[in-house]
Design goal:
The chain has 187 residues and is mainly α. The protein contains 5 helices and no strands. Helix 1 runs antiparallel to helix 3. It is elongated, with a radius of gyration of 21 Å. The two termini are 13 Å apart.
């Protein structure tokens, strides 16, 4: 029911507490890693260049890179990471509401679907960013030449399938809550 509160058992509350800690830890790691990466890049530009060369694993991309090329890399990385960060934040909010007893709500179901779609989007975003980044950086390293690399890995399949499972469960939960609310309105 969308408006009622269901108190989860203590074992579930404990699990939800750990889930909250895990999502906050993930968010903190992203922020700290990005902060360190930014600091190291500003104080030592060769640090950033080495990271870019390692990222693309292409012998033609060697650096040193211009500020525009470094900025473009940051934007590409943020596009991909922001999807994961949004999913982590939505997960934290979902776990928080579950601990408060707001389990069978339309908001919880909608949030679950959002998390599922973010997980699904990780695959095409990763593929597009990697393909575009490799093409762009090989062109910058060797003007007139472009290397396009498209990869579809097992992790991509897992993200697609598990993300869709989460989306479907969210839809089923949403419909069940809506039907329950309709039935309650008739009583």
């Amino acid at each position: 029911m969308s408006s009622s509160i269901h108190t989860p058992p203590d074992s579930t509350k404990s699990l939800l507490r750990w889930a909250q800690v895990a999502t906050l830890s993930g968010l903190a790691m992203f922020v700290l890693a990005f902060g360190y990466f930014t600091y190291a890049s500003l104080t030592d530009p060769t640090f950033f260049d080495v990271q870019l060369v390692d990222l693309f694993e292409d012998p033609n991309i060697t650096g040193p890179f211009t500020n525009l090329e470094r900025f473009t890399a940051v934007v590409l990385m943020l596009i991909e990471d922001s999807t994961g960060i949004l999913a982590l934040w939505a997960s934290f909010r979902l776990f928080t509401e579950y601990r408060r007893g707001n389990i069978f709500t339309l908001t919880a179901a909608a949030r679950l679907r959002f998390i599922g779609w973010m997980v699904v989007l990780l695959t095409p975003i990763d593929m597009v960013v990697e393909t575009f980044g490799t093409a762009l950086y090989t062109h910058w390293a060797q003007p007139g030449k472009v290397n396009i690399s498209i990869s579809f890995e097992d992790v991509h399949v897992f993200a697609l399938v598990f993300g869709l499972v989460i989306v479907v469960v969210g839809h089923v939960m949403y419909q069940a809550i809506a039907i329950s609310d309709e039935n309650s309105a008739f009583v």
